[in-house]
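Revision sheet: structure tokens.
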Amino acid sequence: MAPKKMTIAEKTIWEDAGKMLAKAERDGVETAWDRLETQTPHCKFCELGTTCRNCVMGPCRVSDKEGSKMVRGVCGADADVIVARNFGRFIAGGSAGHSDHGRDLVEVLEAIVTGETSDYRISDEGKMRRLAAELGIAVEDRDLLEVGRELLELLYGDFGSRKREVAFLCRVPEKRKEIWRRLGMTPRGVDREIAEMMHRTHMGCDNDAASTLIHAARTALSDGWAGSMIGTELSDVIFGTPTPKMARVNLGVLRQDQVNILVHGHNPVVSEMIVEAANDPKLLAEAAAARAAGINVAGLCCTGNEILARRGIPMAGNHLMTELAIVTGAVEAVVVDYQCIMPSLVQAAACYHTKFITTANKARFTGAIHFDIKPATALAQAKEIVRIAIGQFSRRDPRRVEIPGPSLEMVTGFSNEALLAALGGSLTPLLEAVKAGKVRGFVAIVGCNNPKLRQDSCNLGLARALIEKDILVLVTGCVTTACGKAGLLLPEAASLAGPGLKEVCAALGIPPVLHMGSCVDNSRIIHLCALIARELGVDISDLPVGASSPEWYSEKAAAIGLYAVASGIYTHLGLPPNILGSKTVTDLALHGLEGLVGASFVVEADPLKAAELLDARISGKRLALGLSG
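Predicted:
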């Protein structure tokens, strides 16, 4: 029986998305929702995580149901082993993605300190010196580039196999580090943990589900406290530490009279150069000669978040808006780096005058124009890309252009440094507000869109419900766009918060929902939790905090969720990972981890029910700290 076709209202809550979905139908452009319908219903074995393709004795399908003849695969692995193997590899994939992003920033730092590039530079010298000193590098009376070279070598070491623990564990409370040591969870090196996970899940290796999952947690921690944290901190050093600023959001940021370039992906190395090139006087003159009023750069997904937080570059949309942005007919070029980029964008771009341009050899797309961008030549290559976009402006068909609008304002750019600055340089005012119950706790809402869920309905539903309960919300990644479009990233949104949070927001001049960056910048949030825990002399698991990814879809989101739980943060997911085929693995994720690391996962599709669960958790942690619930 064919699945019921979703209406536009069932696909999204947004007016701009709805208009573009209708236009996509008229223009004959296929979207993620269309493809989801053709894939439904999904394979039940795959949904449960009980299929194994790790060798060619299979593929195998197993079941833990009583009376089933498929209890074990050909090698003898049961549902517990197969589900744990699959989840471990899922976590390894997510950890590799964010950590490889971090490695790319280390390579750019190397190009700077060795003189290979003049296109990139150290933008926040003070942060680099503070960072080096925190990691035990002498900085006083030393040349900046000399400090940079030593920092470079130390951080490269975090990807290797020779350390007992990664460098940023210096930020972790001692109580938490002792838990990791006792459980064998201490992350030693990014590549080491990922490689060991692939080895453990080879046939004939780790056939104990709990053991595999412990190493999955260690792998995720190597991402959160090393790979991702390196990516965040070096992005600040190289491109500048974010500070609060006004910006604009939704598809209305596209300009009818300008050359529109969308940057998409996750790494700011390319998008920063595109922004530089778009402001080049010669290229602006070329755009004017092509009868364009200017060159407009806007962001999608996390590359968008990076330049949004640092430069205030407008944000066109999140994951499920990427195809729809092209459908406006107003985009001259989409320039991508890697991660969360739908292959379908090549076909969508081909339906219009849009050029689809790739810039990373690890993310090639058949049918795209490819530039292998290197630090030594990045700006010159970026100018070539912008020139291609200018050339496409005259090929735009005005009859096919529809830009929904207008765009909306939001406040972005709350790094930990910016947050501390807003508090007068100390966490004390914030902690006093927590003790007084004006801010009852904190929840990070992070991650993606998933076409299985009405776009952004869960992200927004949870954010609104939490701020009503005097819980300050921190957002990264695709949730940023949702909250920006809903007006929650403005100080005036404090009128929607509970009385205590409203008072605090008014005193500090901040929104009740704070934008903390891209999804790699969830490392800012676990670092902030560590700072608060150290200030109070407790473990992270003792804090009135929580995390959530209501509409997640990716391996990276699972890795983020697992490193949050392993760090002691209760974490909500709107959809379950593919582990329900094993009672052992499911029970460990939902219950058993609580006894091991002081936190666990909870799965709840209803955002209002999820808010109640997070609120109850925060109340319990407040009472345990001797505060009012």
